Amino acid sequence: MCSPRAEGGISENSADRIGTVTKNPLTLRDVALRASERAGGLQGRALDREAKRRGLTLSYTTVDKIIAGTYTSRPTRRTLEALAELSGVPLVEVLLAAREPLPVQPLAELLPPDADLLSADQRRVVVDIVRQFARSNRELDEARRDAESSAALAPDALALAARPGVPAAAPDATSGEESQDSGSDEPS
Predict the structure, then answer these.
(1) 153-185 pLDDT tens trace
(2) Compositional bias (Low complexity) spans (predicted)?
C-alpha cells in the first residue's frame, strides 16, 4: 500500500506547514509571481515555453490572468502542479492557495481485498454511492465558491449604503402611510 505522501497526500511536515500558511495565506497570484521570478521574470508565452520544456502543462493565458489578478476560472490540477514545480512552492500549499481539496489516499487502496469478490449488482451500488457523494461534494464546493464570491461583493453594497443620502434599505411598506390604492381589485 502506498503512503498518502507518495500519492501526493499530506505528511506530518506538510500538515505543520499548512498551519503557518493559514496564518498568512498564500494566494494563487503569489504562487504565479514566484514561478515568474524563479524563471528569470518570464511571463506569458515565455513562461508557458519554460513549463513545456520541463514537461509541464501551463497555458500562458491562464498564468497571465492569474498574475494580473483577473483569473476567475477554476485551475486544472495540471496547471496547479506546473505552478508548484515552477515556483518551488509545495503542491499542498498551492492547492490551499487555489482553495482546492487536498489529496488523500486513493479510495481503491482503502478497500479490503475481498471487495473484488462483490457481485456486479453490489459493485454497481458501491459505485453509485461514490458517484452520489462525489456529486454532492462538487455541488457543495460550488455553493461555497458562490457564497465567497457574494461575500466579496457585499462590502461594496455596504459602503454604498453608508453614503449620506443613500437609504440603507427600501422604505417599509407597513409604515402606516396611506395607500394610493383605491381598495378595488379592478384595474383603474
Answers:
(1) 665 555 555 555 555 555 555 545 544 555 555
(2) 156-177
- List the domain range (segments joined by +) for residue 128: 106-160
Amino acid symbol at 89: V
Are the C-beta atoms of 77 and 8 separated by less than 8 Å?
A: no
Which grid coordinates are listed for 148?
465567497
SS3 assignment for 118-154: CCHHHHHHHHHHHHHHHHHHHHHHHHHHHHHHHHHHH
Kindly state whether residues 83 and 40 are assigned to the same domain.
Answer: yes
How many domains are contained in the chain?
2
What angle (nearest 5°) sits at the alpha carbon of residue 14, between those of residues 10 and 20?
Answer: 135
